[in-house]
From TrEMBL:
It comes from the Bacteria. It holds the Pfam family CO_deh_flav_C. InterPro entries: CO_DH_flav_C (IPR005107), CO_DH_flav_C_dom_sf (IPR036683), Diverse_Substr_Oxidored (IPR051312), FAD-bd_PCMH (IPR016166), FAD-bd_PCMH-like_sf (IPR036318), FAD-bd_PCMH_sub1 (IPR016167), FAD-bd_PCMH_sub2 (IPR016169), Mopterin_DH_FAD-bd (IPR002346). Residues 1-221 form the FAD-binding PCMH-type domain. This is Xanthine dehydrogenase family protein subunit M. Keywords: Oxidoreductase. GO terms for molecular function: FAD binding; oxidoreductase activity. The keyword Transferase does not apply. PROSITE patterns: FAD_PCMH. PANTHER family: XANTHINE DEHYDROGENASE FAD-BINDING SUBUNIT XDHB-RELATED (PTHR42659:SF9), XANTHINE DEHYDROGENASE SUBUNIT C-RELATED (PTHR42659). It comes from Nostoc edaphicum CCNP1411. The keyword Translocase does not apply.
Length: 325
């Protein structure tokens, strides 16, 4: 592991200025992903800027929704009464992430910025366009059971690992960012980037910018998060789905759907959402929506099974939210 310096800061301004002065610096709060990447030699930082003293851990309700501070711990958010009552999809996604010990340490902002879990990316022995652009993607010709069936490119087929990001995508969350000169608010759907020809660029976050909060709009939707994985705990998704429905007398007035484990970013089911609008809640409706959800799927050599999993997971999640399970 490369040697590094450490500095604890007490203000956003100092934290951001310090990182801007040294492009090899990095913010650290929980550090549950960053330190692993540094130990593996995948990511380096000459100085780690500890932001745990910043006032960014509040969870605040307001007239238009709820605001979650970026260094709120995953466990605190998962068990927050207002989150559990009004946004159960968030609580469910968090409680199916990592282990209790990691959830007690990992932060919300860090969870959204965790790097892909592709074994070829995390092992410097293998060529990877995310680590070194232009040298190739080992997963395309390698073992790619866990990889993308949507949104991939010839340069990268890794999937985004965050359960929370999938839930927040279904809720149309907004990422609040602070930089040296100005603050920005970016829709989570726009925040994450598809690999295209530049897989090393994963988000719209610019050097020196810091995620300070996540804002989630208020709505009366029922929601649910379903995660399909190889084992029941401490495992990343083969396929996951976050569903939020606005239901009125067994009619779906509006739907929001996002998938995880299948794409380089949380994958929004736009066509399925449009189809479900003003449809009756029944099995036939759910099956037709599921068929639309997989229209664009392009499986890799070892993960064609994910197509059927997406369909079944969506039908199951819709049934739970619709009260038909």
């Amino acid at each position: 592991m490369q040697p590094f310096s450490y500095a604890k800061v007490a203000s956003e301004e100092v934290a951001i200025a310090t990182v801007n002065q040294d492009q090899t610096a990095a913010f650290i709060a929980g550090g549950t992903d960053l330190l692993g990447l540094m130990k593996d030699g995948v990511q380096t930082a000459n100085i780690l800027i500890d932001i745990n003293s910043l006032p960014l851990a509040d969870i605040q309700s307001h007239a238009n929704g709820i605001r979650i501070g970026a260094i709120s711990r995953m466990s605190d958010v998962a068990f927050h009464p207002q989150i559990q009552e009004h946004y159960p999809v968030i609580s469910q996604a968090l409680l199916q992430s990592a282990s209790p010990q990691l959830r007690n340490m990992a932060t919300i902002g860090g969870n959204l910025l965790q790097r892909v879990r592709c074994g070829y990316f995390r092992d410097p022995v293998f060529p990877c366009n995310k680590r070194t652009p232009g040298i190739g993607c080992s997963a395309i010709t390698g073992y790619n059971r866990m990889h993308s069936i949507f949104g991939a490119s010839e340069h990268c087929i890794a999937v985004h690992p965050s359960d929370l990001a999938v839930a927040l995508t279904a809720l149309d969350a907004v990422i609040c960012i602070q930089g040296t000169e100005k603050a920005r608010r970016i829709s989570i759907h726009d925040f994450y980037l598809l690999p295209g020809e530049t897989p090393a660029k994963e988000t719209l976050l610019q050097p020196g910018e810091l995620i300070v909060a996540i804002e989630i709009p208020d709505f009366a939707y029922k929601s649910h998060y379903l995660k399909v994985r190889d084992r029941a705990s401490y495992e990343f998704a083969l396929v996951s789905v976050a569903v939020a429905l606005d239901i009125e007398q067994d009619i779906i007035k509006s739907a929001r759907i996002a998938f995880g484990g299948v794409a380089p970013k949380p994958w929004r089911g736009w066509e399925a959402e449009e189809f479900l609008q003003n449809k009756a809640i029944n099995e036939a409706t759910f099956k037709d929506a599921a068929a639309l959800a997989i229209k664009e799927a392009k499986p890799q050599t070892h993960n064609e099974f994910k197509i059927e999993l997406v369909k079944r997971a969506l039908i199951r999640a819709l049934s739970v939210v619709g009260g038909k399970s």
